[in-house]
Amino acid sequence: MTRVLYIAGWGRSGTTILDNLLGQVPGLASTGELHNIWQRGLIERRQCGCGEVLSECAWWQAAFKEGFGGIDKVDAADAVRAQGQIHTRDSRAVLRALRQGQMIERYRYADYLKKLYDGIATSTGADVIVDSSKFPADAIVAAGLPGYDVRIVHMLRDPRAVAHSWQRKRAVADKDSDKNSGQLRRVNLVRSTAVWQFYNQVIARHGRSAVGAGSYLRIQYEELATEPERVVRRILQHAGVDEDLCPEFDGNEVEMLPTHTASGNPNRFRTGRTAIRLDDEWAENMPSWRRLAVTALATPTLRQMSYDRRP
Ligand SMILES: [Zn+2]
Question: Are 245 and 26 in contact (CB under 8 A)?
Answer without folding.
Answer: yes
